[in-house]
Design goal:
CATH topology of the largest domain: Neuraminidase
Largest sheet: 7 strands, antiparallel
Distance between the termini: 9 Å
Shape: globular
Structural class: mainly beta
Helix content: under 10%
Oligomer: single chain
CATH class of the largest domain: Mainly Beta
Radius of gyration: 23 Å
Strand content: 35-45%
Number of domains: 2
Strand order of the largest sheet: 3-27-26-25-24-23-22
Amino acid sequence: MQNQRISATAAFIAVALTVPAGHSCLADEQPVKTDVFVSGTDGYHTYRIPAVVVTPKGTVLAFCEGRKTSRSDHGDLDLLLRRSRDRGKTWAPMQIVHEEGGDAKITIGNPCPVVDQQTGRIWLPFCRNNDKVLVTYSDDDGATWSKPTEITDSVKTPGWGWYATGPGVGIQLERGAHKGRLVIPCDHREQSAPERTTYSHIFYSDDHGQTWRLGGTVGPHTNECQVVELSDGTLMINMRNYWGRDGKQQDKDKMRAVAISRDGGATWGDLRFDPALIEPICQASFLRYSVKGQPGDGRLLFSNPASTTTRHQLTVRLSSDEGKTWPVAKLLHKGPSAYSCLTVLPDGSVGCLYEGGEKHAYERIIFARFSVDSSPETKGVDVPVVEEITGIKPLGNFRLPGFQRTKPTVIEDQKALAEAIGSEGAERIAGQVKFDQRLLVFFQWAGSGQDKLAYAVERAGDKAVVVFTFTPGRTRDLRPHAHLYAIRKGVVWSMAK
């Protein structure tokens, strides 16, 4: 299959991958990585669901679920912790924060710690059997923990069933009428709702954790979530999105859902969907980048498996305009990877505690440490080799007869993008496409509803090659298909034979 271009450029051009002068970037040195939990060791089959915070004294607390007998989400699960006093370079021995019933199948999990910067106390909400909600706390940098207190009646409506705190972290609000409020992101399933419909929500405390109250619920088909406070005191919640799978709206599929609260989380506005933050339907981390003693600005961090197909390519993204655009990305783990949690270390570097491995994503929980560079000079950054832009629809008059008879279109500027997918679609995704860094490859055809188009990143010496593979479906229906991929400039791509 030949490559068809609709712009004046006649060849691939290798360019420096840069951020405009005056912008922050994720420094281009290799992150320092340390294994924190290794599955199959210390009496646990699998370690999952990472959460990490830094205490006022600078101690890094890495939490997770220890799953004793299998990888399953339910069974004999304990809540575990390791502590580091040197920014994640070395770790103290593992300690059990809470477990119940010995070998009984009691699920203790979904850690969602939050640090009260005014009192120094570390609060740790978690769940029992994804039903009851409990909270414990530490006043000695995580060395010991209080007897858990159940708060279910305060933070769960009687009509709700399945419930999960986090996973990830809570936040403490720093400005406005609700300054000092502790906010815990959660999700739940309503028993009266259609099967599998989940909702994101929050609960909060205005008295430093002495009492907890239920906050607002966001729209349906949302799930695991994280919250940040913007510079004007507005809250932004970023959510795992099931609108494609359960809501049956494919134009909203495989991208993060976002909503805003202007009353400290008591209520939430309408959902929007961020096509720059693609996902394979998985948890993600979302955090304001702020260093203690320095005024906050518009920088936000986001991490997740940057893929619409499978859990791999754990990537950290940086926004300098409070989530309007995400022009900077750094690949932390190329292979299988899943849940993650970000934190800012005392020296201003960033830590990411994430699930990763070589054969599957749940081999280890790894702590990676890297820097955010605020130099006004232009710096190189990592741009993903390839990612799919979701929510693209074929043009209304499109009737091409079969994939093998079509040619992909290569798009290298905004005008060509509008010609290929229409001006409305081009405007919608304009914020996530940087034509100085990437080009677009657009496939559209009519064929079986079971037709599949996938890609893989292969190596040719020291260079990456993107290979697309088409698998024809068996049904005889004729349906339109459209797929748009952003490929880093200088990277060769081809169709598998």
